[in-house]
Amino acid sequence: MMKKVSNTDSYLHILKYISLFGGVQVLNVLIGIVRNKCVAMLLGPQGVGLISLFNSSTRLIGDATNFGIPMSAVRNLAEDYDKGDEEKLTTDIAVVRSWSLLTALLGLFICIALSPLLSRYTFSWDGHTLHFVLLSPCVALTALAGGELAILKGVRKLGALAAISVYNVLAALVLTVPLYYLFGDTAIVPSLVLMALVQLLLTIVVSYRLYPPHVSLRKSLLDKGWGMIRLGTAFVLAGILGSGAELIIRSYLNNVADLSTVGFYNAGFMMTMVYAGMVFSAMETDYFPRLSGVNSLRFTFNQIVNRQIEVTLLLISPLLSFFLLFLPQLILFLYSDKFLPALGMAQVLVLAMYVRAIRLPVEYIPLAKGDSRSYLILEGLYDLLLVSLVLLGFWKGQLFGAGLGAAAAGVLNLGCVYGYAYARYDYRLSSSVVVYTLIQMTIGLLVFFCVRSEHDSLRWGAALTLCLTSTIVSLRVLRSKSGLWNTMINKVKNKFTRHAKD
């Protein structure tokens, strides 16, 4: 009986935190939808492609120079916070801020120094050197904001983090859209710098109030951060590989096709990885620290991973099926009819999200075990597969082929990640994960073939029926697993009981 209660609590815990951060992600996405629609209408595919290339380039420089502080600092600060060691926490916060300042300056100068190379190899003509020089403050401001966000995560200020993310997206809408309306493409670089500045200001307003700023470049203080820097090395290298892979893909598309093709690719990527993938973003906030806490308990460890896969897959599958059904309308709503060439690619990428729902929780196993080398190897392998198969797919089948390449890379990487976790960490997929995967992925594939059919009866009648079936399956399983309905009833009863006593 105790085990059943524990199971129920575990499923409820996962649902609770995915719901909390998922709600924030939904709000961010809704605001982002309005902004992206405005940007797409004002700048068109070429402008969207230009923003994508600039963002990919500065992200690559930032990932290469931030020493993984936005990720590695969280673990150190969380340990201090959990132990209640206020003095050590204050010292470590000063260490994080000092190292963040150094990485910000390093990123600034590296971006300026590499501006000619970025211009030459990102674009088909060498005319954007000045733009990359002017974008260098983005790298520095993002590094400083990353350190402050790590502090807030470490001390569990999740509500503040949620508010910052909402205000940041809202500021992007209010500040950048008028600039694009007035100045067109020439406002892209100033807008990117402005948004990096706004993110930093929003973050320090909260973090400085909690912990007043203290930065020192004394060797004795900086030496305390070497453990954090060593831990972050794997994140840095993985970030370089990931950002580099995206930059290579976008640069290749720009050079062999045109900037509009980059805009189409970015639109398809954004719609699936960001909008359809918001459940993943909500999942990661709670899952990683919870998994790290039980990394030495084999049964509990496997159980947490499998339950996370179950809940994530059951939550996202109905969303993905409806996403597939209404994708043409969503492209028109989110962008414009100019972006319809991205439809086929986006449909394939939606299918890849089913695979990602299984793969992502397993990918966190090496990190939770402290095995940064394995994490780096697996991430590097995925990036290699992604670049190779997307470029091959585009060569053979244009944007639809690129989508097939990305989906194939995800499937192959799932096999590698699971095989590695099976052999090295003794991880096993549960039978329920296998069953739910087969059911929901089969429904997803059937919806995919229906929506690509020329027959309206299949495109709408059969596809809609399948979407409702996916929803019913997920709701029934989640209700039975989590005891969610009984919990809600008990809360209502307790509330009325308290009122009656009063």
UniProtKB/TrEMBL annotation:
Species in which this protein is naturally found: Prevotella jejuni
UniProt keyword annotations, A-Z: Cell membrane, Membrane, Transmembrane, Transmembrane helix
PANTHER family: O-ANTIGEN TRANSPORTER-RELATED, PST FAMILY PREDICTED COLANIC ACID TRANSPORTER
Localization of this protein: Cell membrane
Pfam family, one: Polysacc_synt
InterPro entries for this protein: Poly_Biosynth_Transport, Polysacc_synth
Annotated TM spans: 14-34, 98-118, 130-151, 158-181, 187-211, 231-252, 264-283, 311-333, 339-355, 376-395, 401-421, 433-451, 457-478
Regions annotated as coiled coil: none
UniProt-recorded name of the protein: Membrane protein involved in the export of O-antigen and teichoic acid
Bilayer disposition of the protein: Multi-pass membrane protein
GO cellular component: plasma membrane
Statement: the UniProt record of this protein carries the keyword rRNA-binding: no
